[in-house]
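To whoever picks this up:

The parser on our side crashed when reading a file containing two proteins. I've narrowed it down to the boundary between the first structure block and the second sequence. Both blocks are reproduced below exactly, byte for byte. First block:
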Amino acid sequence: AKWEVTFKGVLIKTLQTLVVALISCLYFGTYFAQAPVPVPLMALLGATCFVQSILKMLEAVQFAFSILGVGHTHRHNKVSEFIVGIGLMFVLINVFLWLYLLPMMKDWDLPLGQCKAMFNRELFPSACQDKWEPPPPPPPLK
């Protein structure tokens, strides 16, 4: 019964951390075109999300070893699906933090597609503001 209660809490907390990481990237990449980004706040949110994701991943792995290590139970499928779900959210949190939030903090170009990609320009307009120039128009036809 402890497993039934605890795995839902780990799943919800990891999902909350994923949402905070995603919303932080979207917010700081959108609303600071004219003003400098608040680097200390971004660092605090990023560090909090990173530490929280590591702790929840460790807790999920601990559950897996404690339940799967006792022999065959009816929970094996649930535990493996739970670990895969937590692992996927862990990877997504770290992608958002290291490949989007950190470059925005340091005023670097975004590593995934850079600011040339329409996806990055639409989602993070202020982060791509000075890092992209449209190609010159083609010469007129004679």
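<<boundary where parser fails>>
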Amino acid sequence: AGADSPILYDRAIQRSLVLSVDQAHAVHPNYASKHEKNHGPVMNGGMVIKRNANQRYATNGVTGLIIRQLAKNAGLPPIQEFVVRNDCGCGSTIGPVISTATGMRAIDMGCPQLSMHSIRETMGVKDFTHGLALFKAFFSDFSAIDSKIEE
């Protein structure tokens, strides 16, 4: 379709947003010092946007704004932030890869959980509900919110 109508394809890419969603590290009581002081997600506190100064995540100011507004409009808890301390390493996601390869805006986010990648991963039930509601809001309200943003 892109080769047949490059203008239509370009517009679709410009108006798209990739939600790169998996999980996010909640503040673990035994490792609270691994989080930036004011960016420690808690379980059952709502969805989490992931940020990293070294661009290990695709989140930027505009994509974060869109998700925050979606949550606000849907009556959900304020979006939490996960920021790894600069002196600690962190993993990455497919968000930056997809954004770079396609030119689409992207955001990395997830539900807060404890013990990621262990056999005892734990998350709050409310966060599952918050995530589902946010995804429904995305499909119903994204275009309206996006059309009000001037980049």
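After patching the parser it read the second block fine. Strands lie at 17-25, 48-51, 80-83, 105-114, 122-123. The helical segments are 6-14, 61-73, 95-102, 125-147.
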